[in-house]
Amino acid sequence: MKNRLIEKISGKQEIAKLNLLCFPYAGAGASVYYRWKEYFGNKVMIYAIQLPGRENRISEPMYASVDEIMPDLLEAVGEIVKEKFILFGHSMGAKIAYELEKRLEQSGIYARHLIVSGSRPPHIPEPNPICNLPKREFIRELTRFAGTPKEILGNEEMMNFFIPLLRADFEMDEKYLRKNKVKLECSINAFCGENDTEATETDMQEWGEYTSDFALEVFAGDHFFIKSNAKTVQSLNEIIKRNI
User: Fold this and answer.
1) Quick one: average pLDDT of 3-27?
2) Is 6 helix (H, G, I), strand (E, B) or coil?
3) Structure confidence at residue 2 (pLDDT)
4) Which residue of 48, 105, 179, 222 is surrounded by the most CB atoms within 10 Å?
């Protein structure tokens, strides 16, 4: 893909029957979805959002808000959403995916499904924001998410490198709030970790207010259950099979 916001992960354009567009969580890049290559075969084109400030875009300035992303993202996905597509986002990525689908629907473009994973819905504010905490407190609070490897958390030089990215992403995530619950035309499937204290099953159930076609699945694990629970991918694959 020419647009740097989109990275192709796998699939063959000439035989693909559906596009799967994936949105990473705070601090992560497109590479968190590389392992999905082996699961869906060539009939699914897998794309991942690659936000600036990480991986192959490490030197580029980061976005300050979800709203700031939208004009570039709408342009970047233009060709992808001309075919059948599903949106998948985890944590911060779910909020970006929802906001994208909301704006696409305003233009008459509809996903087959929006899959939101490990993310409170837009009307529930972050109860314990960390983005503006002093450095030591910020690093300590990162441990509650279990997403940053201990090897990095314990390495001061590496943390000094990653803190600006993490702060920017957490600010974008924590300050995203929409009291007006805009319902989508597309179906919403919610994935939840049974031990996730950041997006509880009760929180995730409220995504049902954003569509008339809603389903919730609860998996073993914490906030990052998608990393370790293979059943997550199996459930996603079942949704995909129903749409190709």
Assistant:
1) 93
2) strand
3) 42
4) 48
The residues that are catalytic are: 91
- 165-223 pLDDT, tens digit each: 999 999 999 999 999 999 999 999 999 999 999 999 999 999 999 999 999 999 999 99
Token pair for 219: 């998996």
Q: How confident is the model over 20-46, as a mean pLDDT?
A: 93
Task: Give the CA radius of gyration of the chain.
Answer: 17
Q: For residue 231, what are its two tokens?
A: 């059943």
The total of other beta-carbon atoms located within 10 Å of residue 138's CB is 17
Query: In the chain, count of helices (H) and strands (E)?
Result: 9, 7
- Answer yes or no: is pLDDT of 155 > 90: no
What b/e string do you get for 198-223 counting C-beta neighbours within 10 Å, with b at 16 or more?
bbeeebbebbeebbeeebbbebebbb
Angle between helices 92-106 and 156-174 (to 10 degrees): 40
DSSP string, 37-53: HHHH-TTEEEEEE--TT
Residue 1: its pLDDT value, please? 39
Look at residue 5 and give its three-state secondary structure: coil
| 77 pLDDT tier (thresholds 50, 70, 90) | very high
Query: Of 13, 37, 213, 200, nearest to 113 (Cα)?
Result: 213
Look up residue 180 and give its two tokens.
């007006």
Tell me which CATH homologous superfamily contains domain 6-124+179-241.
Alpha/Beta hydrolase fold, catalytic domain (3.40.50.1820)
Q: Where are the domains of the chain?
A: 6-124+179-241
